[in-house]
Amino acid sequence: MQEEQEKAKLTAISNASYKHFITINNLKFKLLSHGTKGYAYILHNNGYEVKIAQYKSKIKSWLPIQVRISSEYLWLYGLENSWSLIYNWIVETFGNIETEKVCRLDLCTHVSDVDLTTNWENSYKGTFKKRNMFLTNNQINSITFGTRDSKNIYCRIYNKTLEIQEKKHKTWFYEIWNKNGLNFENVWNIEFEIKSEFLRKYELYTVNDILTHLKDLWLLCTSKFLTKINNDNAKVERCSINSEWLEIQKCYNNFKSSPLIDKKIKQDYDANDLIPTIMGYITSYCAYKKILAIDDAINDLKENGKKYFTKKNTTFEKEVKEKINMIGVI
Q1: What's the domain count of the chain?
Q2: Dihedral (C-alpha) 130, 114, 107, 142: value to the nearest 10 degrees?
Q3: Based on the domain organization, do 250 and 279 belong to the same domain?
Q4: What integer pLDDT is reported at residue 40 of this predicted model?
């Protein structure tokens, strides 16, 4: 690949519009003449952007191959099929995949003839901290909730018809809209960017994890992070949910569903599950020592525990930190 990249660089010097293509295991890519931080090689085609490292990094969380699936493939073939194709290509090209990690997930749906912008400042509630509005010819073309540099969720609701008309790309959407009975002249995209930090909060790491929880993630985005309401009560939290938004919440109902559990809450459950065992040992210990008060038991364990750790040439803090690393507590 390095030889091919050198060819791309040399040709680009004399011809700036030159595009260097290579075929690897039946997939054709454009190979860029330059890399990016951490990745020496960048491959592009209609379906994928693949970044490949030249050397192994010392950073444990870093992975040698990074893949971005294009919206075109996701809309035309679905996440499962799009991922399966590039997954198999990676295995054929580089060998078995030891681990995978989803860095960002974009969930969206397209709707037409739905009023999403009237009184937009007072028509939405949720856990977002910031909202913005953008205009084209004095008409609202986009509203956003949250911030792009947030570690959780960022939402954009924007005029998809206008975007395609202005940028003159992704015209294949017209065929999709036609099949789904949408009005070409007034299609809006409701899109949620979900960041890796948020996914880790619910212990979602792999693509399979995402596929198992797509419906639940969409419901979380459209019911907790952001909800469109009717202004039918003085208190926002008591306002009813807009009927069209209720339909939007159902857009992922055909996907699998498995309850999302906050990692911190799960850790509390796991810790509490140990209490019967711990108390069983403590009461047995106290029975041998004829200690009847729990406060006396704790003090006795504290003193004898310190002696035990001293004999082992360690400390309680050190042992706990090792367990934290071992079980991955956040």
Answers
A1: 3
A2: -40
A3: no
A4: 95
Q: In whole angstroms, what is the distance from residue 163 CA to residue 175 CA?
A: 16
Percent of the chain with pLDDT over 90: 64
- Residue 37 phi/psi, 5-degree rounding, is -55, 120
Alpha carbon 237 to chain centroid, angstroms: 27
Mean pLDDT of the region 302-323: 88
Q: Whole-prediction pTM value?
A: 0.77
Which residue segment(s) compose the domain that 306 sits in? 266-327
User: With contact defined as beta carbons under 8 Å apart, do 230 and 240 qualify?
Assistant: yes
How does strand 104-112 pair with strand 153-159? unpaired
Enter the DSSP assignment of 148.
T
DSSP code per residue over 190-217: EEEEEEHHHHHHTT--SHHHHHHHHHHH
Same domain, 69 and 170: no
- Residue 143 pLDDT more than 80? yes
Which tens digits make up the pLDDT trace of 153-186?
Answer: 999 999 999 999 998 888 889 988 999 999 999 9
Same domain, 153 and 16: no
Nearest to 141 by CA among 123, 124, 116, 122: 116
Q: In 3-state terms, the chain is what percent helix, strand and coil (to 5)?
A: 45, 20, 35
166 and 209 fall within a common domain = yes
DSSP state at residue 229? B
Give the number of other CB atoms < 10 A from CB of residue 192: 23
The string of pLDDT tens digits covering residues 292-301 is 999 998 999 8
Beta strands in the chain (DSSP E): 21-24, 27-31, 41-44, 48-52, 65-69, 104-112, 124-125, 131-136, 139-145, 153-159, 187-195, 227-228
What local confidence, expressed as pLDDT, does residue 85 receive? 95
Average pLDDT, integer, range 39-67 = 92
Residue 151: pLDDT band by 50, 70, 90 thresholds? Answer: confident
